[in-house]
Task: structure prediction
Amino acid sequence: MPLTLPIFDLDDAVESIKNAGCVLLTGPGLLRYRGVPVQRYLRQQLLELAKPGDIELYYEKESLFLFSGTSARIRVKKKAKEWLRNLWADPDFHAENAETLRLLAQLPVHLIVSTTPDKYLSANLAARAIQHQTGFFVGGNKEVRKVAPPSMNKPLVYNLSGSVDDHESIILDYEDLYKYMKSVLDIGRLPKGLTDALCDADKFIFLGFELDRWHTQMLIQLLTEILENRDKFASKPNYASDDLRRFFEGHFKIAPLDWEEQDGFLCDLLNAFRAEHPDLARRTDREYDTRLAFVRQYLEENDFTNALNELESAALNNDDKNAVTLLKSRHADFAENQDALHPDTRIAARNKLAKDILDLANAILQSL
Result:
């Protein structure tokens, strides 16, 4: 008996985007570096960067390491965090992914769920001064990080696999993967703002996924509890065999998109949206400033500490360093006393501090 899978229709997808009904889910193959998916290239680099003896084995098919101990795991994770952070400053990375990043910035979807811990998709919006919010999954007994309901005007980029800012989030071995799967399979660990947006959506598009990996299938199974009976599509799904394809399509009801390249699909979808709603597509003609991206991003997250740390590392002369020190002092005073402030006063003080941080960031970057 032939499978009945959804059929992708551009006009229908356009209206779904307009009505906050279309969700993009992005996997490790979305962005590339030197022709290789970023997460795979990272692991190749870690084999060279790790201290001798820290990595005992590397299982390439699942992109997982075997470490010599806990200390070795921590050291390698810190190397991974540093490498991912530095990649954003590499012009070759931006040149290779320029079209993908531009299209994702212009397409006004209200929710992007990323399954990698890097923050490139959020930094891409921040670099173009596109207002948005971010969130990431936290496992274990940590408090669930709340997110506001996303909208076309203030989309949400949610990192389902944690955040590179917390190196413990980076999944590099089976122990990491086990702890993560144990936590994420508890649907209650996802913030209500995210689950409500997922439940209200009618169309889900998977980009950059290797669907034959078992932990990818477990994540999709988790989402299937929310996405059941919704239209689901995947760009360039690669299957090891026809049997796996039939099983996957039959179980998850995810239909393949007809486009050969993900950028071609995103371009056609954006053009179709512009044709129907020319005033709603996001403009990206502002200066694309990657250096300021992480400062903006941290401020979007109300993470003033990391925003100021970014400025401190960029400040080269004494005047700028002193200005950062003064802002750090102001932030410390605000953090200590904010609970005693009237809500309106607290919001005004936070906004003023954020503005002064951005103003200093602009001044520092103009002097570089």
Q: What stands out?
A: Residues 343-367 form the longest helix (25 residues). DSSP finds 14 helices and eleven strands in the chain. The first strand starts at residue 22 and ends at 26.
